[in-house]
Structures are given as C-alpha cells and as structure tokens.
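Aconitate hydratase, mitochondrial (Sphaeramia orbicularis), 777 aa
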Amino acid sequence: VHVYIVYVSLALGHGARRLHVSAAYRAKVAMSRFEPTSFVNYEKLRSNVDIVQKRLNRPLTLSEKIVYGHLNDPHNQEIDRGRTYLRLHPDRVAMQDATAQMAMLQFISSGLPKVAVPSTIHCDHLIEAQTGGPKDLARAKEINQEVYNFLSSAGAKYGVGFWKPGSGIIHQIILENYAYPGVMLIGTDSHTPNGGGLGAICIGVGGADAVDVMAGIPWELKCPKVIGVKLTGTLSGWTSPKDVILKVAGILTVKGGTGAIVEYHGPGVDSISCTGMATICNMGAEIGATTSVFPYNHRMRTYLHKTGRGEIAALADEYANLLVPDEGCEYDQVIEINLDELKPHINGPFTPDYAHPVSQVGATAEEKGWPLEVKVGLIGSCTNSSYEDMGRAASVAKQALDKGLKCKAQFTVTPGSEQIRATIERDGYSKIFGDVGGIVLANACGPCIGQWDRRDVKKGEKNTIVTSFNRNFTARNDANPATHAFVTSPEIVTALAIAGTLNFNPETDYLTASNGEKFKLVPPTGDELPTKDFDPGQDTYQHPPSDGSSLKVDVNSQSNRLQLLEPFDKWSGNDLVDMQVLIKVKGKCTTDHISAAGPWLKFRGHLDNISNNMLIGAVNSENDAVNSIKNHLTGEYGGVPDVARHYKANGVSWVVVGDDNYGEGSSREHAALEPRHLGGRAIIVKSFARIHETNLKKQGLLPLTFSNPSDYDKIRPDDKISITGLQTFTPGKPFIAIVKHSDGSVDELELNHSFNETQIEWFQAGSALNRMKELQH
C-alpha cells in the first residue's frame, strides 16, 4: 500500500525537480527509459531483410526493409503488397492517456503479469486550454487525479513507463526519446507516424492492437503498398515542411493513402530538418496512410546527437545502407514535388485535404462566403511544435513587434514537450510570443483535439481560425460547427494572426506599422536546433519498478471515470437475422462523429458512460439532423445512443449504414467499443479507414462493404437486414445481405469483408481479447 501511494504522488508531479544537465547526463537519463540502445538490434533487422530479399529477389523500399525486418517468420511469411497479412513483432508501444485507459483495462483483463515489450503512457489529452499553461495544468491534475492515479499505478504494476501530465505531447516525447532509424513502434494515436521523421516505422493503432503487442503476440498488418514521394529542389522563403504534406493531401485526398506507407525520397529530402520531416509524416494520417517515413540522413544524425543519443547515431551510420531504400526499388505510385516551386499552402475548412495556395485563399474565401476575419491563430500541436517551428514563428512575431504591432487575432502557443517549453523560454521565444499578444498553453494537445474552453464566440457563430494543427473537421477544435478551421504552417498562422485576415499573403502584401509606414514581412528564419543544447525542464518521467507484482491497481466500482471491462458475448453460431438499421449515415463520418472528444474525453476509461456519445455527430440521411433518429419500436425520435440502448434492452440487434472512408481520423477504439457495447452487430459502408476497420474486427463486430457502392442508396432508414453465410465465414468469400423494406419488398445485396482466418476467430470468440484468453487455457 505504501509503495502504491508513493507512485500516485509521483504521478501527480509532487516534488518535480528542475534539471540543468549536460548532454552526457541527458544520455544517461534517456538510457533509463527502457534503455533504448539495448533494443537497437540492427543485426537482427539485417538478417531478416537478407532472408526476405533472397526470397523476393528484388530491391526493397525503405519501408519494406523495416516492416519485413520485423516479421515473425521471415522464411515463410507470404508477402504480397496490398493483399496478405503480415505477422510482426514491433519493438515498443506508446499510449496517450485518453486511449491508454482502455488499453490498460484490456491488458488487465488479459490476466498477463507484465508487458513483453518496452511500453510507455503519456499524459497529454486530458488538459483543457483555458487561461494558460501553469493554471491549466494544475486544474487538469486536480480534475483527472483518479485517471492519472490509475494510469500511474497500472504502469508501475505491469512494467509501463509513465510520463506525467505536463511532460508534453506523446509524439514529441517519442521523437525526443524513443524513435530512431529502423525501429518499429506502434502507438494508440493516429499521429504516431510522426516518428517517421527519424527514419522509424511508427503506426497508429487501437488499444486492442497495443494489447497484442504488449502481450508478446505477433501483431497483424495487411502488407502495405508503398507510395513514393520524390522531392527535388530546396525549401526556402515562406515555404515550410508543412507545405509538403498540405500539397500531398490536396493530391491524394483523405483516403488516397489508405493501405499504403508513404515513403519520401530524392535529393530534396536533405533540405528538410529532422523535425520538419516529422511534421510531414505526422500529417500523413490525414491521407489515410498506414504511416510515412524518410530515409536516414545527416539531419537525423544531428538530431540524435542533440537529444543525447549519439550511440544510436553511430550505430545507424554503421548500418546506413539498411536505413535507405535500395536503388531501383519500385513504388506502387510515385508523386513528384519540386520544392523550388512549392508555395505556402493553407488547407480547409472542414477537411484537411482542401488545399489552397496562401496567395489564393483570400479570394476563394470571398467567393465561398467564408469569414475573412481571423479570430484566433493557434500554433503548436504534435504536428508543429519543434524548436525550429517556434523559432520561425517567433521571427515573424518579432518583425511585427519591431514595427509597434501586436496580433489582431487572439494567438495561442502550444509547446510540444516540457523540453521545448523550457528551451524556448530560456532562448526568449516565449517572451516574444507574449509581447505580441500570445498565450503559452500547457505542454499538451489542447485545442487541437477539442480541449479548449473557447469563449470569444458563441456556438453557431460563423468565424475563422487558423492553426498549425493537423485536423480541421467540423467542430473538432471548439465544438462549434460554424467555425471554419484552416491548417497551415506556424509561420503562416503567425502572419495571419498579425494581419487579422485570411486575405493576406505575406510574400506580397504589406502591413502598416504603428507610425503609419507600410512594410513587408521578410521570410522567417529559425535555428533547426538550439545552439546551447536543449533545456530538459522538469523531470516528468516515472520508470516502473523491476517487479511491480505486489502493487495494487484500484478501480472504484462507483467511479464515473473508470470501469472494469466485461467480456463481450460470443457469436451464437447462427446468421444475424432481421437487424434494425439504427442510422443510415450521410456523408463524412469520422471517429469524431462516432465518438466525440472534447468534454467526452473524461469518460474514456468508462465504456458505459462514454457510449452516451455514440454517433451523436453523424448526419442522419432521413432528416439531415444529428443525434435524431426514429425508434422503430416506439415510433418516436430520440438520440442515437438512447435508441440503441432501447433496442438492446428489448433484444433487438442493429446495424449502422455509412458512406465512404467511414471512421477516418483518430485511432480511438471507443468508436468501435461503443457500438458493440450498445448492441450493434455490423457496420455496412462504402469503404472504411484502416484503423477503424481493424478496431471493429477486434471488438467482434462485422465491418462490411457494399460490393456495389451504389447499393448504399437501396438501404432505407427503417429497413431490417439479415447477414447470411456466417456458418461458412471464410477469407475472401462475400456475404449476402437480405434487406427487408417496410413496404414488403426485399433486396439481396452482396457484402465484402477483409477478414483473415485469425480475425474470423476474433468474431467467433466475441472479440480479440476473448480469443486471447481462450488461447491461454
């Protein structure tokens, strides 16, 4: 009990000390975080790659080398890009606090004593932006004490490192400490691919996938296709790394990368910093890519040295040919971008693939009726909060200050980590941001994920915000569906916040100084890395004890934040007959629509409570309304979760019908757990986003796609659907759906699935976790 209390107090940051350390000591600290160098096994990677290369007898892309280098059975694994499922052994797992709750609850349910691979929990999602960093952090610690205690004690018991609230955003912490060239890491957040900027294969997954890896079970991934992006020329002026991915998103759209790894290569790569490469890989999630990666180069070497990992850099140099693509390797698709010709971009509103050159967005906004006034500019987030990002934005802000100007818009700054916060404070960037009218928020996700107590506009009021974030779905940042959110680089955000309007192109337009003089901003500049080394700031890491078996993890049965899981029911052995259509969803339906974040984040560890947000953001095709569907047992309209609960209580199974790229966005598995918990059996759509489709399978649901996408139009909101052929459920064999309409007519539709043999066993057992337990006995 005493040990347990000590870990709780550490979790809340009591006695956090400030460390002013040398690079050598930083390296020592870094090594204590699961001693990453001892896990850098390039010989094993090379051995596996050699085995596969002899079998395939062809040059390999970089992503193939790293992925195939982590195969469970490189001698016999069937490898066919886009078709076969690979069984892999990732090197480590990272979880952010909102998804870690459910992941750890599932791990506890597995009955295993300790994680089999190095794993960490990162407290970044539960801190709401309100008044500024210190006060917001203190408030979050108080409000979320029960959750932080649970995660801290569960980490200590099961061997998982714990990064306390205030330490920073998971992806920045991974880049600073855990990512390295050639590593394979999975994370319970869709922007885990950020680590590709350091030559790593980092993939976003749901919590159930993380449990598999933490249990030491081979992890399954459909063999990715590989999209090559060849970069030529050099970045310069106002053009930034962010513009590369904004351009790529405009080309590939939000689903163009689905099932593929995006691999950047070509002479233009060397003009991009390591953290800039991370920005590009981070936002690859917005095109549906499995992950993105850059080849090892001198920029990565420098970053490794600056973050206390010179030993890894030396090893990477030794095995450099393993960490770049082979000459003559083939990509499934190639995009070429000339960085000399690339112009600053801004994407939005409402979708991250709606790309505009900054020079044109003002005219487009006038034509479309988008509000021109920029109400708030927000920089930071896991996508753009590096030292270089902050330096370039500060150089723009300093020019305004020198001319007697402040931001016309509100301006917020989110440091990506405690190390970044401390270093930009030491080097004067924070003061510049404050002087120009900015507020430095906590080292956390904040407004990017909807953790923003915004009060300057009323809900429903049309307004424009510009951010350096990665997503801009409807109502994502501030819960206001009328907010027009645009994503761009931090330096463009800063310029637009100073100008106060979308109709401003810093490359050509003038501002008016306080003395009335006209002046033009000069292109931003900023050091790639700090000259004086990083200041690590406060020590915010808790390493697990060597043996935590005697420690206790408490979950109060009366809690409204945490709830132990009950196993889902097994498949009955019969076809699913006469399931009611709960809702036929119209248009875009992201995981934000299925399981909203913002104020709902506090229930991420309590399945029954968070299920009250299921599909409340989805548009009902019957009436174009949100959270208003017909209860076909009562004839009355109600909220989606309420009707689903009523059906479940009355023994009525139900299905959801959806559109294209259903479940795009976040990796949150709650979007799969909630439908299962409330009685859903199948989700039938035109197409799925990768992570969500896997999450549905993991929880024992049937994610199915129309063989003919136009069959979506044949489904009516009051239909009853039967899925036949479950007794002969086999990979590649479609199902037949019998659709009964209320007028007595019937349609028979063919439905496809992507289940393999192992995944069919998940369905039959009721969930992947149920199947794991079966295999233990």
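The domain at 62-338 is CATH 3.30.499.10 (Aconitase; domain 3). Residues 387-402 form the longest helix (16 residues). ok done for today
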